Amino acid sequence: MPVGLVWGEGVAERLGELTEVRVRHPERVAEGWLQRRTRALVGDDGRLLIVAADHPARGALGVRGDRMAMGSRADLIARLMIALQRPGVDGVLATPDVLEDLLLLGALEGKVVIGSMNRGGLQGAAFELDDRFTAYRTADEIAARRLDGGKMLTRIDLGDPGTVATLESSAAAVTGLAEHKLMAMVEPFWSTRGEDGRVANLLDPDSVIKSIQIASGLGATSAYTWLKLPVVDELDRVMEATTLPTLLLGGDPTAEPEATYASWGKALELPSVRGLVVGRALLFPPDGDVAAAVDHAAALVHGDTA
Asked: For this UniProt entry, which residues form the secretion signal (predicted)?
């Protein structure tokens, strides 16, 4: 565990117990979901701070210059435990494996839990834009575990045939989640593949607006749809593209933390922006102080009383 990380006592022992439980009592996972104490999606202020940890399942392990920063599961879980214990953190977004570790450790009591659904578009793959549903595949699976919603990455590339399958699957998930009265968190990007074969998300205002318009129309109803969007230039104009509640994502934190916090704070003043979904910027801050980074974000989202 990195220097500076503190999470209770007996950290190594508790993490080691996870494998033992999975070997001898795998049924405890299903039991845990049924017994977990849940909460309303939003509190009185109508805002959310969600910690994201679904990057590893898509092979995206890098943070800044360290391409394997998220390679250690014990380290990631320890950082998540610290974050989830801080006041003002509403919940977590992750794939089943990460959520089940946190569940067995008792970290999801009274938290909002969003299941990541389509992780098939592996980072750097020739099929990256074929974002198949390989984690939680259906709304029924999410509802059966009493999760609070499902998230789908929805990248749109007019030159890639994989896009249409992604759109169709995301639409089905939006409809299914709405039938269960659960949040459908759609993360749209207008994307393209460069000459080097790498997929890039276009983050100019017009491209983001186009992605918003397409994502907003997915499914038979948008009643339970929330958007997950990047902080981009002209965000006030960009957010005029939708009335859907929106959570801002952090992305790979390349800017200095102070600049990042300032951009979040300004964006949170917009009426349709209702919070943050941030992973690497909070879990892997430059100074290693996860608690301080999370507390700063919580103050931005919920105020100093979080």
From this structure: none
Q: For the chain, list residues with pLDDT below 70.
A: 1-12, 252, 305-306
| Helix 257-267 with 290-302: angle, nearest 10 deg | 20
4: three-class secondary structure by DSSP: coil
The pTM score is 0.94
What percentage of the chain reaches a pLDDT higher than 70? 95
Report the DSSP beta bridge partners of residue 175.
none
CA-CA distance, 227 to 232, in Å (whole number)? 14
Label the pairing between strands 183-193 and 199-202.
Answer: antiparallel
Q: What is the reported pLDDT for 164? A: 94
Length of the chain: 306
- Cα(201)–Cα(264) distance, integer angstroms: 20
Looking at domain 38-302, does it have CATH number 3.20.20.70?
yes
Separation between Cα atoms, residue 255 and residue 262, nearest integer Å:
11
Helices (H), the chain: 11-24, 27-35, 73-84, 96-104, 139-144, 162-179, 205-216, 235-238, 257-267, 280-283, 290-302
Domain extent listing, the chain: 38-302
Locate the DSSP E strands across 53-168.
91-94, 112-116, 149-156
**Under the phi-then-psi rule, with left for phi > 0, alpha for psi from -120 to 50, and beta for the rest, what region is 303?**
left
Q: Which of 251, 247, 193, 243 is nearest to 222 (CA)?
A: 243
Is residue 165 exposed (0-12), middle (13-18) or buried (19+ Cβ within 10 Å)?
middle
Side chain identity at residue 213, one-letter code? Q
- Count Cβ atoms below 10 Å from residue 236 Cβ, excluding itself: 12
Locate 292 and state its tokens: 């301080």
| Per-residue pLDDT, 115 | 98
